[in-house]
Amino acid sequence: MTATGGDGEVLFEFQRVGSYLRVTAIDAKTGVEVTVAGPATGSQELLKRTAINKLRFVQNKNAEGGSPAGGAGKPGPKGRGGLY
């Protein structure tokens, strides 16, 4: 599913996981993606809006000098993360 607006095209992927609906929003131009989840019985439109808001938040954070584009929200390397 896609949506277009003043900020460009956003691609959506809906995936049911048990009693939850997982929504991934991907900015078609930059490839930045975010994921949100909510009850499967809830409003898909509300989840889409939440995903778009999170996507814009991440993009603004990246523009202000946060993580590089596409890097926000990705986990670090697995294993022991510090000195022991």
UniProtKB/TrEMBL annotation:
Residues 60-84 are annotated as: Disordered. It comes from the Bacteria. InterPro entries: DUF6898 (IPR054193). Residues 67-84 have a biased composition (Gly residues). Pfam families: DUF6898 (PF21839). Residues 7-61 form the DUF6898 domain. This is DUF6898 domain-containing protein. It comes from Azospirillum oryzae.
